[in-house]
Write a structure and sequence with these properties.
The protein is of the alpha+beta class. 29% of the residues lie in helices and 22% in strands. It has a three-stranded antiparallel beta sheet with strand order 1-2-3, with helices on one face.
Length: 87
Amino acid sequence: MASEPLLHHHAARSHLSVILPDKLLRAYHPERTKPIFCVVLSNGQQWAVEAEWPDGTIEQIDTFKAHFEALNWVNDLSEAWLQDRGG
């Protein structure tokens, strides 16, 4: 069964879709190998999908005009994106 993409709160983000405290995230995923996907308002006008890797590196994946488009990318395309990268 495929796992659902994780949306995660990061303190540097201005707006997020789902907030999950770091402590709680580590409790349930102590040895994660996949990134956590964040939907953030990047410049006040566009929504960005970012991947936060286990080492703390943040990679911007794409930007969208509407919040729901970014969420749809996470829900519908993030697993394929990971597979394309060998994850």
